[in-house]
Amino acid sequence: MNSDSDLQIAGDILAVQHLLQPAREHPATVADFVGLARSISEDRAQWAHLVRYDATTRWYHRLRTGPGYEVWLLSWVPGQGSGLHDHGLSSGVLTVLDGELTERTEQTSRPLAAGAQRVFAPGYVHEVINDSLEPAVSLHVYYPGLTEMPMHTAQCSPAAQDVVPA
Question: How far is Cα of residue 137 from the mean position of the Cα atoms in its chain?
Fold first, then answer.
């Protein structure tokens, strides 16, 4: 019987630097984009000082861009919502940073507390709304960068075009 483990035979892989994958400078997979959103959300110093609340319209700020992607910071006072929309050809990651938002689709309504993340593909139709009594802040990563945001009626058919991130 051979008692040698793989580690005894190969050695510590972390000690063999040439076998490790280099860290990517920019995200390339869904998991990478989720990780990017998570790392930004955990580092409040990157975004907290930028947040503004506007009672007349949703406030938004482009936080970062990279090859083919954008990161947006949005704030939502109680009652503000995105309207039913999709993101054209863009996929995305929505992360709630503070407060609580509700995501609605034709089939479901889902509360999203701070820390919650949602991943969506091109053409995914939803509405995001702050139906709580406190303000909320969210982070949105789009790949490719957001170029269109078709609005939909309650029957989920495309309506007018708007390019405000949501």
Answer: 12
CA 24, 30, 33, 39 torsion-angle sign = negative
The amino acid sitting at 152 is: H
Predicted model pTM? 0.79
Location of structure tokens 């929505």:
94
Distant-in-sequence, close-in-space partners of 83: CB < 8 Å, separation ≥ 6? 127, 151, 162, 166
Residues 73, 52: Cα–Cα separation, whole Å: 10
Could you give the CA distance from residue 102 to residue 99 in angstroms, rounded to a whole number?
10
Q: Which tokens sit at 71?
A: 């990161």
Predicted local distance difference test score (pLDDT) of residue 45 = 97
Q: Residue 14 in 3-state DSSP?
A: helix
Ranges assigned E (strand) in the chain: 59-66, 69-76, 91-98, 100-104, 109-113, 117-120, 127-129, 136-143, 149-152, 158-162
